[in-house]
Each structure stands twice: as C-alpha cells, then as structure tokens.
Amino acid sequence: MQAYLVGGAVRDELLGLEVKDRDWVVVGATPKQMLAQGFTQVGSDFPVFLHPKTREEYALARTERKQGHGYHGFSVYSAPDVTLEEDLLRRDLTINAMARSEQGELTDPFGGRADLEARELRHVSEAFKEDPLRIIRTARFAARFQPLGFTVCAETMALMRTMVAAGEVEHLVPERVWQEIQRALHEQSPVTFFQVMRDCGALAVLIPELSSEDNFSAALETLQCVHSAEGSTAERFAALLCALDERDCTSRAKALKAPNDCQQLARLAAAFLPEIGKLDLAQPDAGHLLELLENADLWRRPERFSSLLSVLGCALGAGSQKRLEPLESAADSAQGVDPKTLMEKGFSGKELGEAIRSERLARIAQAVSSPTS
Ligand code: CTP
C-alpha cells in the first residue's frame, strides 16, 4: 500500500502557504489492513482512518457516483484496485486534485499546478456537477485566494450557471450552506464570495433580496467595511442583510438558519438603519432615543449594542457618521444611571423601574441638548 498527501495540503504547500490540515489517500489497502496497522476507523459513509500517532486522516482511495439530488445520495466505491488518479478525478477543483507521495513525488493528472500558476479555479471533470455544494466552495476559494489573483475560469463559471439553472442549489440543506457562508464571511475577501455567487446565479436562489443592484452594492460596501474592522461573524452577517427592510431581513436570516446572535444582530441593524436616517440631528427626541436603546436591550446586551454601532457605522458610510452621534451619546449618558443609588433612596419594585427610566430619560435629554463636542 502507498499513502499520498492530497487536497488542500498539497495546494497550500505549492502556494507557499502554511499547511493546517494534512489529509492522506491510501491506495492498495483494505480496511482490515489499516486496522491491523493500528489505524482507527472514523466516519461510517466511507473508509477514513486516523493515524495511530499523528491522528491525521487517511482515506482509502474511492470513487463516487451520484444517485439522488443534492449533497446526499452518493454511492461510494472503495477497494484496493481504485487508483490514485481515479480518486483525484472525483474531486472539485484541479488545484485541489494533486497528490504528493511520501517520497515527495507530485501526481498532477489534471493540470492543478499549471492552474495554480495561472491563478485559475477550474473544475476537474463533469463530476463537479454531482455536488452542488461545490458551487459555494468554489466561490469561497475565489474569496480566499482573491489577494493572490485567482479567479473562476470561464468554463467552470459556465458549468456553475448550468447547475444553478437546473435547480441544484435548491437541494442543498441550509445547515451546509450556512457553514460555507460562515467560512466565506471570514475569508480574505468576503465580498468576492458574494460576487461569484451572484455571477453564477446562486445568490438569487439563496438570498434573492440581494438581487437588486442597490441592495447588493450596499451589502458589499458594508461588508467590506466590517471586514476591514475585523468584525465578528454576526457583524459581517448583519452587514450583509441590514439594507433590507426588517421583515425581509428577519425572514432571510431565519431561512438561512444563521445562529441566533447573527439573526438578532441582523434584525436590529435592519430595524435601526431607517430610524437613524430619520433622526432630527439638530434636536433629537430624547424619548425616541430611549426607546431605541430599550429596543436594543442596551443594558442587558452592551456588547451586542457596540456590535450594532459598528455595523450601523459601516452601513452609513464615512460621510454620515454624525447621524450616529445622538444614539451614542444617549447610550453613554443612560448607561451612567446606577439602580443601586436609586434603591438606596428607597425605590423598589415598579417605582424603581419607573425611577430608572425617568433618570435615563433626563440624562439623555441633557446630553443631546448640550452636546459636548
Ligand atoms: N473535496 C471535493 N468536493 C467537496 C469537498 C471536498 O472534491 N465537496 C475534496 C477536495 O479535493 C479538497 C479535499 O476534498 O481539497 C478536502 O476537503 P476540505 O478539507 O473541505 O478542503 P481543503 O481543500 O483541504 O481546504 P481547506 O483549506 O478549506 O481545509
């Protein structure tokens, strides 16, 4: 039997990047032989083993054939007679379909190295079509390698468009799509991910609200800004959806099965953006500002509130930062109210709640009527 380093590790090593995970393919072995050598079996769908010492993944060479729609429904054939080339043929992109033997020799039957040099993301074969998740993966690799100059080649883009037109993206389960979106939001150029998704038509299926030119460019500008500020996943996700109206934003975030913190921040940002636009900057209404802070649950969720301010700051753009000032100074002044002091004054129960609220209101009114700057 012979083991080969495959996939991302070979690609990243040739690109001179740090290699994180090392995956191996084993040719000419049976599960029994692997177990006899001390490997432990993981995964039930196909034979994958963990190395007894390194704990790296060793998969027996396999071929896959699609049976149904979507991500599931593959029939896997794994046996000692499956060759390395056959295993590489079932893979998504040529740059991911190279192998290196333990002696250091490169196997590259599909021109992965040439595509690395030409900075092209190219599908290995028509088998690309068998897994619609590959459309999203390709967009994600475009996002990751954008700074190196990689683009999706014309033939692969055409194939991706055909797959989308055939309804393949609709068969993907939201959980897998979310996993890819979440990773894409943290790649080197997240906006590139959404540009590729739009070019191939997948975005119109997954986030149709971003089909309009206005929403799309607003989303990308805001996302780029949050990315430059090294924002969290929730901030990046909210940046993407905050230009939508609150209802559309809420239902899309839910349909994508984003985690709760992402859904909540996106909803808040979409709800706040029009409110910020309507504020009378010369004479902000203290009562309205207090309501906004209450809606944002500032006192119980101060970190989320500061995330909200970051996203809103990006959505407003450099020329409109002044619009956030009333909300920021209202938050600063209202946060200064200390319930303990009011309790010491004898307030309790419902009266305490009312006293806190009127103290906050008074402080906000004072802060916005006499701005410090
Ligand atoms: N692969 C594939 N189709 C998929 C998923 C994976 O062809 N839908 C193949 C690719 O050859 C890929 C390898 O399996 O290189 C390992 O997949 P994964 O670990 O997801 O990706 P990497 O290429 O290793 O990239 P990353 O750096 O993101 O881990």
Could you characterize what this model shows?
There is one protein chain. This protein has 373 residues and is α+β, with helices and mostly antiparallel strands. Among the domains are: 1-116, Beta Polymerase, domain 2; 271-369, no CATH class. Helix content is 52%, strand content 10%. The chain contains 18 helices and 11 strands. The chain has helices at residues 8-14, 31-36, 84-89, 112-118, 133-144, 154-165, 174-185, 190-199, 202-206, 213-228, 233-241, 246-255, 260-278, 286-295, 302-316, 325-335, 339-344, 349-369; strands at 2-6, 23-27, 40-42, 48-50, 57-60, 62-66, 74-78, 99-101, 106-107, 120-121, 151-152. A 7-stranded mixed sheet has the order 3-4-5-2-1-8-9. Helix 10 crosses helix 15 (302-316) and helix 11 crosses helix 13 (260-278). The mean pLDDT is 94. It binds cytidine-5'-triphosphate.
